[in-house]
Amino acid sequence: MTMLQVKDFGKRFTIHHLGKTRQAVEHIHFSLEQGGFLGIVGKSGSGKSTILKSIYRTYYPDTGNIIYDSAHYGLIDLTQATEREILYLRKHEIGYVSQFLDVMPRTTSRELVETAILEMGETEETAKLEAEKVLTHFELDQKLWDHYPNTFSGGEKLRLNIAMATVKKPRLLLLDEPTASLDQQSKMKVREMIEKLKASGTTLVGIFHDIEFMDGLCDHVFDMQISQVGLVKEGVMHES
């Protein structure tokens, strides 16, 4: 079953103070089966994160369609979905992990993970146990569990970000450089969690500069090819 299909996707950005518009990506096509893992590779500035953010609908695509097979809505075009539909999908079906942590202030790391679990309809007791389990897995020091994340290091914030997304076991998980500031041991913890999610049926799309990390993990690789004028040509998808 096809979980995600991107058809002729394009996105441009307007630089208002210069009065100019820049084409970030265009003519992007790929599809991904349920439980598959697609890795997107390419040079910095090639539009990899733009694709992920448009699937998550942080950005509004300018052209094309992004068709997602939702457990709740059935086939839905994320480029046309309402804000209410997008909020539901983010809460219950689609997860996103970036290099950066953006959370509510005065909320502890433990509370953030517990809230993510409670949103899935679990009991408070289950949320407490599962939060402790995932925070332990990603080796976030127990002394930090009841502290506010704005005091954390970059690596600690990233591990918390990954914990919040993976604990919900989303149907579709988007990974935007999730290992960027992690040491090798922490990267292996992330890989282990990704392998477990994949084995349980989660579909994944990820961006990794660490090619060794992707080895044996991705089913397919989407290669962004850059033209001389800086526009993204149609990508090439091949077996990993």
Proportion of residues in helical segments: 25-40%
CATH superfamily: P-loop containing nucleotide triphosphate hydrolases
Q: Unreliable segments (pLDDT under 50, ≥5 consecutive)?
A: 226-236
How is the main sheet built? Answer: 6 strands, mixed
CATH topology: Rossmann fold
Element order: H for helix, E for strand = EEEHEEHEHHHEHEHEE
Distance separating the two termini = 20 Å
Q: What portion of the residues fall into strands of 2 or more residues? A: 25-35%
Q: Count the domains.
A: 1
The shape, in one word, is globular
Mean pLDDT: 86
Strand order of the largest sheet: 6-7-8-3-9-10
CATH class: Alpha Beta
Number of strands: 10
Rounded to the nearest angstrom, the radius of gyration is: 18 Å
Structural class determined from secondary elements: alpha/beta
Write the CATH architecture name: 3-Layer(aba) Sandwich
Oligomer: single chain
DSSP helical segment count = 7
Domain ABC transporter: 4-240
Family: Belongs to the ABC transporter superfamily.
Keywords: ATP-binding, Nucleotide-binding
GO molecular function: ATP binding; ATP hydrolysis activity
